[in-house]
Every structure is written in C-alpha cells, then in structure tokens.
Amino acid sequence: MTKFLTIGRVLYDKGYKELVEASKIIRRDNPDVEFHWLGPIDESYPAHVPLEKVLEDQENGDIVYHDFSNDVISFLKGADCIILPSYHEGMSRTLMEALAVSRPVITSDIPGCREAVDEGVNGFLCEARNTASLVEAIKCFLKLSEEERRAMCENSRKKAESRFDVKKVISVYDAILSKLKK
Known about the structure:
Blueprint: E1 2-7, H1 16-29, E2 33-38, H2 51-59, E3 64-66, H3 72-78, E4 81-84, H4 93-100, E5 105-108, E6 123-126, H5 131-142, H6 146-163, H7 166-181
Parallel strand pairs: 1-2, 1-4, 2-3, 4-5, 5-6
Helix pairs in contact: 1-5, 4-6
C-alpha cells in the first residue's frame, strides 16, 4: 500500500478539490493507494471545505480524514509521500517538515512550494489548480522502484539539511537585521 498525506487546514485553496479528483482517478487502477488529510476544518476561512463534504469524500473512499493532531511527526513518518497541491503559500512549513523526516513531496509549482522540490530528485511538481497535472505527478511517484523511493527520501533529507537548516536560516535573518541597523 502507498500512503499519500496532505497536512494543513482543509481548504479549497490547499488543492482539496484537485486532490479528491486525483484520488478518484488514481485509485481506479491502484486500489491499494490511500490519500490522507491531516488538519482542522477552519470554518472562519471563506474557502474552507465543509465537514459534510469531507465526510462524504471519506465515506466514498477518496480520502482518509484526520482532524487536528499534536503528533504530526507520526503521520509524516507513516506516509510514503507528502502532497500539497496548494494555490498559494508562504514558505510551506509542512514541506520543510516533510523534507526533515526524509519524505518525498509532490507540490504545486508556485512560490513557497517549488523551493522544496528538485524535480525527480526528491519529488515532483504539478501545476496549481490542475487535476491532470497532479495525477501525472502522482503516477510518476507510483512508478518508482523501492530503491528510487529510498533515494528520494535520502535526497529530501539532504535538501532539508542544506537549504532549510534552522541555523542557516537564523544566520540569514541576522545578516538582514545587521544591514537594517546600519
């Protein structure tokens, strides 16, 4: 079984519709694939997905819904690949955490997401708001051998260490602050 995981508030802006549609397409030929979503429904956000819709999609087998959890690491480690088909993001903490725990990622080719992926090396990019593009990225991942998947996991961790190490981020902030003080 291959388990994909999306982490974030359950919003249409996070690519919920495209993910559910992709799940339906992928699972036709791959019934052993699961698509999990971890995160709360934020009713205060205008583009939130109603709980009734999420439960319907879960009942249909299109997603497995998990509400808020304080144990995100267990979910990350239990997934084969992290998916974030978002329409817009700041720098995605979810993707940085995925890389840190050695998980490949499939995400939108948008600022805030594309920085986490070296195409074909530690994941795949897809076009935002495009189910067909998301399906193709998922199919690319599913075609990987176990050895290729392990290499992607290792490459994700290497990217996390080289690009998103907290010490490096702090040193960049310190350099910016030093320039501003002058």
